[in-house]
Structure formats: structure tokens, C-alpha cells
Amino acid sequence: MKTFQLEVVTPERKVYSGDATMVIVKGIEGELGIMANHLPFVTPLQIAPVRIKTPDQDEHVIAVNGGFIEVHNNKVIILAESAELPEEIDIDRAERARERAEERLRRAKQEKIDYHRAEMALQRAINRLRVAGRGR
Length: 136
Fold this sequence. Notes:
25% helix, Single alpha-helices involved in coiled-coils or other helix-helix interfaces, coiled coil, ATP synthesis, alpha+beta, ATP synthase epsilon chain, ATP_F1_dsu/esu_C_sf, ATP binding
């Protein structure tokens, strides 16, 4: 199977770099599957797991919390606001963050709480839990 170079980077570090046969991301218009020799494009990403299929038939999952994907010249770069590998995720911390965000959303109508910010926090927590294998 044909491959392409993939990098997942955040402002702090390079999270992943290697050859891939396919990467599956969730853009603002829906799910995208990118394979070798894909047409060039750039699009924003939603908070969602990124699935990477490698030449040796492995599949890696990374919790990506927004950003952009750029495809050009058989190279894919994901510029993420933040990204974590499954083994880096503190499950207890993510559970607590999910609970806090859900509580903020419940109180949003009675109090002056930034609903959008609470919703984004909830999405990030759920994304981390999914990638860590504990999500719903």
C-alpha cells in the first residue's frame, strides 16, 4: 500500500511523525479519510480522535483537541491546539474534567457561565476518555 509522511504537532512538541497509509480526522464538515497522493487542502479540525493506519497494519489513535490539517505533496501535517497519545492521558483527571464541564453546563442557564467554553471543555474531556479507551 502507498504511504505518505504524517506529522502531528502542537505548539509545545511533535506528538507523532512517521509513514502512514491512511489518516482519519474529523473536520468541520465531517469525517475525512486521507490516503497517499490526496489532493492538497487545508481545513479546521473538530475536537475528536485522529486515527492513523501504518504500513505494518497498526492503528494509532491520538486525542486531538482542535487545530488544522494540511495536505500537500504527499505530506500531511496536523497542527493541533493540543494532542495526547493514549498512554499520556490521565484518566482520573479527564473524568473530573468531564464532571466539572457537565456541572457547568447544567448551571449555565441560572448563572452567567460561558456555555461555549463549558461545551468545549466537555468535548475535550470526552475525546481524551475515548482515546484512552474509557469513553462513552
